[in-house]
Design goal:
This protein has a single domain (4-213), classed as Decaprenyl diphosphate synthase-like (Undecaprenyl pyrophosphate synthetase). The longest helix is centred in the N-terminal third of the chain and has 24 residues, at 55-78. Helix 2 (15-36) runs parallel beside helix 3 (55-78). The protein has helices spanning 4-10, 15-36, 55-78, 94-106, 123-139, 150-154, 202-213; strands spanning 40-47, 81-86, 113-121, 167-170, 189-192. The chain contains seven helices and five strands; from the N terminus they run ααβαβαβααββα. By secondary structure, the chain is an alpha/beta fold.
C-alpha cells in the first residue's frame, strides 16, 4: 500500500491526513474479500525502513496502529476476520505489542478471511531472523544441516502458517517489491497501478483479480 503521503499533498493536506485515509481504505478492501473469494490478504503497512521517516510521522503511525487495532478487533472478530501480524514486533511500545497479541488471540478462530498486517516487516530481516533460529537449533542438536530444505526454511519464516502469495499488487506507480515477501514471492504474479492507495477502490481491486485470473501460471513447467 503506497501513496498516502502523495495523496495528502495532492489534496493540500499534511501527510498524516493521507495515512488516516489509507487506514480507512483497508476496511473497505478487507470487507469485500469474502464476497470475491479472497481467503488471504497481506497488507504491507510499516516496513523496517520506515523507521527512517521523520519522528513525528513515525509516532503518529504507531499511535494510529494502536488506535485501529484497539477499535477494530471486536468488529473483525464479529465479521469472521482472522488477524495475524508479520514482522519484528518487539521494536514497538509494549502497549502496542499487547494490543497485537490480544487481537490475534481474539480472532484466532475466525476463518472467513485471513488478514496479515505487516508491521516493522522487512523480508531481509525476516530471512536473517529465520537463519538465526535455524542456526540455534543446529547448535542445540535439534536439527542437522542435512535436514535444511526450502520447506523447512519456510517454517521458520513469519508466514509459516500461510500459503505463498499468488498476486502482489503495488499501488502509486512504484515498480519494485521494496523488501516484501522476497522468499515467498518467487512465483507470485505482479500487478502495478498508478493509483494512490487511498484511491484504490473495490472495483480496481476486483479488476486486478480478474486480470490475474487470465494469466497462465506454469511455475517453470511447460
Amino acid at each position: 500500500m503506497d501513496g498516502n503521503g502523495r495523496w495528502a499533498k495532492k489534496h493540500g493536506r499534511p501527510r498524516i491526513f493521507g495515512h488516516k485515509a489509507g487506514a480507512d481504505r483497508i476496511d473497505e478492501i478487507v470487507r469485500v474479500c469474502p464476497d470475491i473469494g479472497v481467503k488471504y490478504l497481506s497488507l504491507y503497512a510499516f516496513s523496517t525502513e520506515n523507521w527512517n521517516r521523520p519522528g513525528k510521522e513515525v509516532n503518529f503511525l504507531v499511535k494510529l496502529f494502536a488506535e485501529k487495532i484497539k477499535n477494530k478487533t471486536a468488529g473483525m472478530k464479529k465479521e469472521g476476520v482472522r488477524i495475524l501480524f508479520l514482522g519484528e514486533r518487539t521494536a514497538f511500545p509494549k502497549t502496542l505489542q499487547n494490543l497485537m497479541a490480544h487481537c490475534e488471540s481474539e480472532t484466532a478462530s475466525c476463518r472467513k478471511v485471513n488478514v496479515m498486517l505487516c508491521l516493522n516487516y522487512g523480508s531481509r530481516d525476516e530471512i536473517v531472523r529465520a537463519t538465526r533460529k535455524i542456526s540455534e537449533d543446529v547448535l542445540a542438536g535439534k536439527l542437522k544441516p542435512s535436514q535444511i530444505t526450502e520447506d523447512l526454511f519456510s517454517r521458520y519464516l513469519d508466514t509459516r502458517e500461510l500459503p505463498p502469495p499468488d498476486l502482489i499488487i503495488r499501488t502509486s506507480g512504484e515498480l519494485r517489491l521494496s523488501n516484501f515477501l522476497l522468499f515467498q514471492a518467487a512465483y507470485a504474479e505482479l500487478h502495478f497501478t498508478q493509483t494512490l492507495w487511498p484511491d484504490f477502490s473495490v472495483p480496481e481491486f476486483t479488476s486486478a483479480l480478474a486480470a490475474f485470473k487470465e494469466r497462465k501460471r506454469r511455475f517453470g513447467e511447460i
